[in-house]
Amino acid sequence: MSQMPSLSRRERQIMDVLYAHDGASVATVQQELPEAPTDMAVRRLLHILEEKGHVKREKAARGFRYLPKQSKKLAGARALQHVLDTFFEGAVDQAVATHLLKKNAKIAPKQLENLHKLIEQAEKEGR
Prior knowledge:
Blueprint: H1 9-21, H2 26-32, H3 39-52, E1 55-60, E2 63-68, H4 72-88, H5 92-101, H6 109-124
Antiparallel strand pairs: 1-2
Helix pairs in contact: 2-3
């Protein structure tokens, strides 16, 4: 799996905001960050993320809008793979069991039905 340059805690927080909003302005990022830095600090961090290849910017009505370069789906898949590899030795069943068996797990019947269908589909496809 190709790795992009690593991110600091604050850079990860900014990326979370950008993914949550499907792109955002400096002001929106600043509002969403815990213990928000100055707007100049946010601009600098966005510039660093752009230099690292994580973010692109596009002209907006007032200033710029910053967008993640990687799709939300791909970023999620890579993050999930990282969690699986790091904490579950790549074992999907262990990760799912950990989630399903925790005390406060709330899984809707429809979600369980969907999981059954996905498992059946994977079995049919020989995965």
